Amino acid sequence: MSDIVLKTENLTKRYGGVHALEGANFELRKGEHVAIMGDNGAGKSTFVRQITGVEQRTDGKVWFDGKEVSFAGPIEAREAGIETVFQNLALADDLDVPSNLFLGREKVLFNLGPFSILDRKYMRKATEAALVRTAVKIPNLSSTIRHMSGGQRQCVAIARTATFASKLIIMDEPTAALGVQETAQVENIIRTLKENGEPLILISHNMRQVFDLVDRIVVFRRGKIVANLRKQDTDGNDIVAYITGAKTGQAELQAA
Amino acid sequence: MAQTSHGVGGLTYDAKKRAWPAEFNVFLALVILVGAFELIGRVFLGDSFLFNTRDNVDAIFNEQRLQIIILQVSIVGIIAIGVTQVIICGGIDLSSGSVVGATAMIAMSFAQVATVNGNPNPKAMFIDYGLTDLPVIVPVLVAIGCGLIAGLVNGLLIAYTRIPPFIATLGMMVTARGIAKWWSKGQPISFPTDSFAAIGKGLMPVIIFISLAILFQLILTYTKYGKHCYAIGSNEDAARMSGIKIANHKVLVYVIASILASLAAVVLCSKNLTAQAGMGVMYELDAIAMAVIGGVSLSGGRGSIIGTVIGSLIFGVIISGFTFLRLDAYYQEMVKGVIIVGAVVLDQWRQRRRAIGA
After folding, report:
1. N or C: which end of chain A has fewer CB within 10 A?
2. Model pTM?
3. Which residues of B touch A95 (CB under 8 A)?
4. Keywords on this record (chain B) (predicted)?
């Protein structure tokens, strides 16, 4: 039990009469990388939103880092140690890389309330260190996000999660809008995170990517977890069968 | 933009790759404008716009004209500083001109002398209560209080009722103008104390304008407040997700803008030695125009106080230039309008070009 980072029990979310998520039981162990797969509207993003406090769950329990938690908002979840890379990259286009990494948690030289003087040198150094640690290449830290390619933006967003000592990283389709080379770069960062032993939940539609990167695959279908399989116990066709509903069953029992 | 990287992780800082600062373009426009007036003056009037041509004065530049250029924009310039940070934060403030009017009336009534030429001051509203010949700090604090209230109303409306800034500050624009007229039933208020009159004397408005501009340029560049202004104007959702307290920040932004407008009111009525209900009409639009000409993007997130200061100088040069060419004031307004629209079109064009280049 002690090596479990995140656990949900009977996690349920209904929007009026729509059952977006029903009775999801999920576990994530230390250092483990898990992929969440499923068709559009299967409940993947809903599941993440309940964990990160973006929405409030209808029913069920969540344990994080050994404690039962109920986050009022994404900021609370982040303070507890869950860093999320959102689909719509929460970056400010007109700020440079260090400013984006430290957005909302700026390091200050001395505290004068809102008029606190920023410690720009420290933030720049910390940014360089974070980018080196995640092997992210950005040509110029001083240029604004607006001037960067989609891949570079995604890398900055991911580097941000890695800058702060996080206990869990969640990525919602981090490579959906990227080219081949940029996708490879993001995947390399994920491998680096794996080497560093950082647990990760990866939402992805890319079968090859999932089999390349993660230890375990969880499949959602119509708001329910229909499969929970170790990578070596399954293959692409099997997963597709679960996603499309050709194969149903209580596969999570086998893996547990 | 080059995709190659250098050094460890491609992280070496390369000054050459820094984006061309937008302020440089604005400064270039200022230089061209001055050059154009200089050229037209030489060719058609045989006189210089910029340089001294009088034999009895020992100076290189026409210092009198330079002083007028900056003096006539410094009061609206103070407002423009506040408006700049509002626009960077993704908002707009239409109330500043009316706040100037209301504050001028209210502050002036606390800056009255007791006697004029030996008779009791006919304009002093509070003479019966003995509120005359007060120290200068009283009307200044009253003015700041007026700005604080106007800014709080603006900011709270925008942050908590979520109505568009355009509507909230439009309401304040109409209301504050009403207050300005109601305060003395439309009568102008004159006869300020000497110490109050000293605030706007000579080049004091310029000194106040430049000091405030430097202060706010530093605040926007080096403080958390400034960083959050750019972040909210650039992507409000991202700022919210990052844990920035958007509502508090917006209230503060509008409070600062209104306080700057009320300080402009103090300088204005001190300089004119009188306060009238119609003071500051259209100042809000002039201030917005100075910011826009100075490269502040109306969509938020981009711009600087330096840009706005240069924008205000462009304004001053146009007004002086037209006077210098002995053209009617009507033409000034027309050209001002064209320049404002032109600046926004240029900004849009620059953004599109960047989007393609990226």
Report:
1. N
2. 0.86
3. 227, 230-231, 234
4. Cell membrane, Membrane, Transmembrane, Transmembrane helix
